[in-house]
């Protein structure tokens, strides 16, 4: 009898030890960000934010007793490199989820890898085609570009600006925005009097803007990410164009104002995530405290204010972490957990993922802001 109890005791001890070892197994998460290159204004704050959140989580014992092991690679904004690094994260590092990439082009290139390998990918890029149509393993945290386009056109309607000119960048982000703007403008009764395109590497857009000026639009909508929109803003000032200018959410950071100069950017409007104006929000706003805390923590760690772009990685991590807190451990369980997470307050907005919506944000994700004396004000 004693021998039997001894065997049972040893067996229980081994089981408990195995259970403890299992519980302590790290959760491996990957990050793909354009930390260097022309899109570094996106990737650097995304990388910083993810590192900050993982450090904070691990300092508290991890999630459900398991530490987070983080693998981050710099894509340089290159789609081919992003695909190679995605494969490395999955096959070498054995991650159960990937946050990123930073840009639409990279994300579209990596999607087939995530789908084939069945690893949840939470993109930090805005292009609508990333999640529309829905892909089983792919999610995104920036609001879809059609939401930003609608926000702009609603404001133009209020100001009775019916004749509009478009100037969009020729990359994936710009092409997607151009497509959404044209479709939505047609539905809402706008007339597009000029439709110009520029290359991401162009350093002077006065030829396109000269054509736009001749078309005499009521408003100009520029769609791109820096430095292009900043150059366009300066060119508009140089050409003496007084027409109302709207920028996309792709430049919703103070870096844009710095590059364009406050004088040239004066009066420009754009849809921006609430982080840009968190100090102007009512205390009752569900995002107000989270945004303030995120900005405080980021500034304490990196010496600069948090940006909307870093917020995309913040939300990506929180979506994955929320699934893990509810018991998800495998890639499939994390995917299911993100999709069934319910309502989650994030930096980019209030998320409500569903099997038919892997973005989960609506018009409430943006505030329309105007640049006044080098700063944002909320447009009422």
TrEMBL record:
In terms of SUPFAM superfamilies, this protein maps to: Periplasmic binding protein-like I
Which InterPro entries does its entry note?
A: BCAA_transport (IPR051010), Leu-bd (IPR028081), Leu_Ile_Val-bd (IPR000709), Peripla_BP_I (IPR028082)
Span of domain Leucine-binding protein:
26-359
Give UniProt keywords alphabetically: Amino-acid transport, Signal, Transport
Where is the secretion signal located? 1-23
GO BP, sorted A to Z: amino acid transport
Query: What residue ranges are annotated as transmembrane?
Result: none
PANTHER family, per database record: BLR7848 PROTEIN, LEUCINE-SPECIFIC-BINDING PROTEIN
**UniProt protein name:** ABC transporter substrate-binding protein
Q: Which organism is it from?
A: Geomonas paludis
Query: What is the gene name?
Result: livK-2
């Amino acid at each position: 009898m004693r021998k039997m109890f001894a065997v049972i005791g040893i067996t229980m001890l081994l089981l408990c030890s195995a259970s403890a070892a299992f519980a302590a197994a790290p959760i491996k998460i990957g990050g793909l960000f354009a930390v260097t290159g022309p899109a570094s204004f996106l990737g650097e704050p995304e990388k910083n934010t993810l590192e900050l959140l993982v450090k904070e989580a691990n300092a508290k014992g991890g999630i459900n007793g398991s530490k987070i092991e983080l693998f981050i690679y710099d894509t340089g904004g290159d789609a081919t490199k992003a695909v190679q690094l995605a494969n490395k994260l999955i096959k070498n590092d054995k991650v159960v989820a990937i946050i990123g990439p930073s840009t639409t082009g990279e994300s579209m290139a990596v999607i087939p890898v995530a789908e084939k390998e069945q690893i949840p990918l939470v993109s930090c890029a805005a292009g609508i085609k990333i999640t529309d149509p829905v892909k089983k393993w792919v999610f995104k945290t920036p609001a879809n570009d059609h939401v930003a386009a609608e926000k702009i056109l609603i404001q133009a309607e209020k100001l009775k600006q019916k004749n509009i000119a478009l100037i969009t960048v020729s990359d994936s982000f710009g092409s997607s925005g151009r497509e959404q703007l044209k479709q939505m403008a047609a539905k809402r009764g706008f007339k597009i009097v000029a439709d110009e395109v520029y290359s991401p590497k162009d350093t002077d857009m006065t030829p396109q803007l000269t054509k736009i000026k001749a078309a005499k639009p009521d408003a100009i909508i520029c769609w791109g990410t820096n430095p292009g929109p900043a150059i366009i803003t300066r060119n508009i000032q140089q050409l003496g164009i007084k027409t109302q200018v709207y920028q996309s959410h792709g430049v919703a950071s103070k870096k844009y104002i710095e590059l364009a100069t406050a004088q040239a950017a004066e009066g420009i409007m754009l849809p921006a995530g609430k982080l840009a104006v968190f100090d102007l929000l009512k205390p009752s706003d569900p995002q107000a405290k989270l945004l303030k805390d995120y900005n405080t923590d980021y500034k304490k760690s990196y010496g600069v204010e948090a940006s909307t772009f870093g917020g995309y990685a913040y939300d990506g991590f929180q979506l994955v972490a929320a699934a893990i807190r509810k018991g998800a451990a495998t890639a499939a369980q994390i995917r299911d957990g993100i999709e069934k997470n319910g309502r989650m307050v994030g930096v980019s907005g209030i998320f409500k993922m569903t099997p038919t919506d892997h973005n989960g944000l609506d018009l409430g994700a943006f505030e329309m802001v105007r640049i006044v004396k080098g700063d944002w004000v909320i447009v009422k």
